[in-house]
Amino acid sequence: MTRILLSLAVFVFFALCVYGMWHGWKRRQRKQADLPAFPSTPVALGAPRLATTGVYIGTTNAGNWQDRIQVGDIGFRAEATLSLVPEGVAIERVGASPIFIPAESIRDARTDRGLAGKVMFSEEGLLVVQWENEGHLFDTGFRGDDKDVYGEWVAALVGGKA
Fold first, then answer.
1. b/e 49-75 (16+ beta carbons within 10 angstroms → b)
2. What InterPro entries does this protein map onto (predicted)?
């Protein structure tokens, strides 16, 4: 009988943890509902000047590396292709909607160790693009398969060539 009660207690505790996580996710979505709509990808994009594959890590409120944006499917990590086109930065995600950052919205680019709850061993494990949308600053993170190209990306984005 003790074993059954203990098993039941563990199951109830687990269920409460899952409910708490779900409730927190929903609360964050409601809190972020007033954020400006993300820009849509233009119908026609120019030829990519830079492109790399990897994983879209997420988008956060700038300066707060753990405050993941969860509106729509923006908060979902996914394999992706990051492309620098004349119009801006295009992120084509597998199994999720694409993300587009207009060139005129880009404020900064850097390498970083962590974003949106993802922490890397290396100080330069992630490529982070800071951009502005209707007065709100965001950081969007990408973990490339080839991290050796990060310097080229930062130079192109910060140098105003985006």
1. ebebebbbbbbbbbeebebbbbbeebb
2. PH_bac
